[in-house]
Amino acid sequence: MICVTGASGTLSSEVIQQLEAAKAPFRAAYFSRQKTEAARARGIDAVVIDYSNPETLRVAFQGCDKLFLLGPTLPNQTQLELNAVEAAKQADIPHIVKQSVMAAHEERYIIARVHRAVEQGIESSGMAWTLLRPNSFLQNVVTFMRDTIRNESVFYSSSSDARISHVDVRDIAAVAVRALTDPGHVGKAYTLTGPQALTYDELAGELSKSLGRTIRHVNLSPADLKAGMVAQGAPEEIADWLIDIERFYREDGASRITDDIKRVTGRDPRRFREFARDYASVLQPS
Ligand SMILES: NC(=O)c1ccc[n+]([C@@H]2O[C@H](COP(=O)([O-])OP(=O)(O)OC[C@H]3O[C@@H](n4cnc5c(N)ncnc54)[C@H](OP(=O)(O)O)[C@@H]3O)[C@@H](O)[C@H]2O)c1
User: Fold this and answer.
1) d(CA 153, CA 284)
2) Nearest 5°: phi and psi at 171?
3) How confident is the model at residue 61 (pLDDT cuts 50, 70, 90)?
4) Does any ligand 1 atom lie closer than 6 A to the CB of residue 172?
């Protein structure tokens, strides 16, 4: 039995869909009670977890032999995930597949350090592990940029002309499913990237073609981008994390391209054009 945490989130919801398609037995662990009930109504083995409540983790992990661990982007993310690692150890789960972040081990930006501390906790736990270190999600275009793309045909960054090998969440999920269901992935750390490293101006050009209207990328100063995030409700500390990763991008930290997705899944990762075609309808004005 595979326990999938963060079950309602961008990546884990895709992991669940692919596990369902593969007919692999899994338990979906949600934070929200309402989403848990909705999943149960669809026939899914669903449980409520709160990383700050060990008892919920004990119940969720019982009888599982694999854990897909995904932490929410919160100021105490490291501690929340370490709570889950401890609970997995107590529950004798043999193998953790952890959603991490690109170049976590280099610790060149805050979010990398947040994840690296969890990776180290897992490595020293005695459990078998597999680490997924994806670059920035292509789906961020929908999650974080959809409203301004829809309403103003524009999106913002402070990445300037940095090249980023964004990766499609569907390809990350495919690697996760292989790591959770096939042998041969223990002790491996996969760096997951798309097949192209595009600047945001190039990405805007591709989007314009797919959507049939001009989409512009506007580069802001880090201070202005942060002010915008905070105005939209982001906690100041999280805005600082996100501004810091844009610095990593500008320092050419995220342009590398690997073949790990192809090696693990046998499939080439999706190109931006394919993503833009598949998500075009959600990016058009409502
Ligand atoms: N976005 C990127 O480009 C990117 C790239 C590389 C790595 N990452 C990493 O990927 C992770 C985010 O993935 P995502 O965007 O798929 O996640 P997401 O959509 O933000 O989902 C996070 C999940 O965590 C759950 N959650 C929140 N608080 C919780 C708690 N106290 N206990 C248990 N579960 C809790 C949420 O449940 P509810 O929905 O019920 O609240 C949600 O399902 C982060 O660790 C991030 O650093 C992101």
Assistant:
1) 9
2) -80, -35
3) very high
4) no
Q: Which helix (H) or strand (E) holds 134?
A: strand 128-134
* Confidence at residue 286, expressed as pLDDT on a 0 to 100 scale: 78
Atom of ligand 1 nearest to the CA of 49: 33
Give the distance (Å) from ligand 1 centre to CA of residue 102: 16
Q: What are phi and psi of 26, to 5 degrees?
A: -145, 160
| Predicted model pTM | 0.98
And the tokens for 105? 């081990």
The residue whose two tokens read 């953790």 is 96
Where do the structural domains in the chain lie, given as residue ranges?
A: 2-135+168-192+256-269
Sequence-separated (6 or more) residues with CB below 8 Å from residue 223: none
CA of 168 from ligand 1 middle (Å) equals 16
Q: Does domain 2-135+168-192+256-269 have CATH number 3.40.50.720?
A: yes
What's the Cα-to-Cα distance from 71 to each of 68, 114, 234, 236, 270, rounded to whole Å? 10, 10, 17, 19, 25
Check pocket membership of 6 for ligand 1, CB cut-off 6 A. yes
Cα separations in angstroms, 169 against 30, 143, 256, 263? 19, 12, 17, 17
Task: Give me ligand 1 centre to Cα 77, in Å.
Answer: 10
9 C-beta closer than 6 A to ligand 1: yes
